[in-house]
Amino acid sequence: MDHFNSLTVGTLNCRGLVNEKKRKHVFHWLRSKNLDIYCVTETHGKNDNYEMQQWESQWGYKAFFSNCSDSRKKG
């Protein structure tokens, strides 16, 4: 009998994570879902390595970011 491993993926349009209180709340809520991969869109983060390192530290796991320097686009 074949055994299949499952991979759970979740996505969330968070409509901005710049506010630290909101970011901590969203990260806590996401961790409670026990998914394998979390895709968070519309973070409105800056194209700033320091900020992204801070967010990854707050998240507590490895994170990958795709930001845009165009102020009209904040994915």
Topology of helices and strands:
Elements: E1 9-13, H1 20-31, E2 37-41, H2 49-59
Parallel strand pairs: 1-2
How are the strands of the biggest sheet laid out side by side?
1-2
Count every beta strand, where a strand is a DSSP E run of 2 or more residues: 2
Succession of helices and strands: EHEH
Strand content: 5-15%
- As for the number of domains, it is 1
Rg (C-alpha, Å): 14 Å
Question: Which tags fit this structure?
Answer:
75 residues, alpha+beta, two-stranded parallel sheet, 2 strands, 31% helix
Commentary on this structure:
The chain has 75 residues and is an alpha+beta fold. The protein has one domain. The chain has two helices and two strands, in the order βαβα. The chain has a two-stranded parallel ribbon with strand order 1-2. The longest helix has 12 residues. The chain is globular, with a radius of gyration of 14 Å. The model has no long low-confidence stretch (mean pLDDT 86).
In short:
The protein has helices spanning 20-31, 49-59, and strands at residues 9-13, 37-41. With 75 residues, the chain is an alpha+beta fold.
